[in-house]
Amino acid sequence: MLESVGLLTGSPWIYAVVAVSVLLDVFLPVLPSGVLVITTATAAAAGSTSVAGAAAGAAGKVAQVPQEVPSLLILMVCAAVASVLGDLVAFRLARRDGGRLTRAIARSRRLTTAQERLGGALSRGGGILVVIARFAPAGRSVVSLSAGAAHRKVKDFLPWSVLAGVAWTGYSAGLGYFGGQWLGASWVGAAVSVLALFAAGALAAYVIRRPSAATAQPTTVTAAPAA
Questions:
Q1: Which residues lie closer than 8 Å to 24 by C-beta, 6 or more apart?
Q2: DSSP code of 151?
Q3: How many Å apart are CA 60 and CA 106, to the nearest integer?
Q4: Helix-strand-coil split of the chain, %, nearest 5
Q5: Angle 143-147-153 (CA atoms, 0-180°, nearest 5)?
Q6: Could you say which DSSP state residue 143 is in?
Q7: DSSP 3-state assignment of 85?
Q8: Which end of the chain is more exposed for a tag (fewer CB within 10 A), N or C?
Q9: What is the DSSP letter of 222?
Q10: Distance of CA 4 to CAs 7, 10, 36, 121, 202, Å?
């Protein structure tokens, strides 16, 4: 897969591929959108290194610069915008036809718990759960669909979706770019960056599944004094 993406990194189409993948993985979490962002950012790191080498040895022409080097800024903008748009599409669809989705969620205890925690977090202004869930496997799907099915207000959901998209994009692109700078723009650097992304996803999933303090601590009942 990395070789296939490598063939696209020299073409402007890579931005469209990344955007479509990020947009759709709210419905198809199996899409490797994170891997695409990391690989493209790694290619951007390789391009910047080649440009620096070409500038240093321009007289002898010891370095060859690729015709097209992916722009890290354009990549991050495309991925972040696609992330927010995908969240809003899922949110709107679930809000419009929430009855069927609500029944599906009700059949899963885990999804029901996630929806209840999300609703409480958004109502209290603690939508940081939306940001954390963006890193967890399928967490983005659960959050966006659950928020829409629960008929949460767009103004309560959208700012956290934007923050989640920017945070996820910055982390993924940063892994690829700095991994390429430090470890070299090879499959080793990309693989290490992908593992770091998966590690963040595992940590986010653990935080989401961990019961809150209110539910983890048993309620103590003070006995009334005997008359």
A1: 31, 86
A2: T
A3: 68
A4: 75, 0, 25
A5: 140
A6: H
A7: helix
A8: C
A9: P
A10: 5, 11, 10, 41, 27
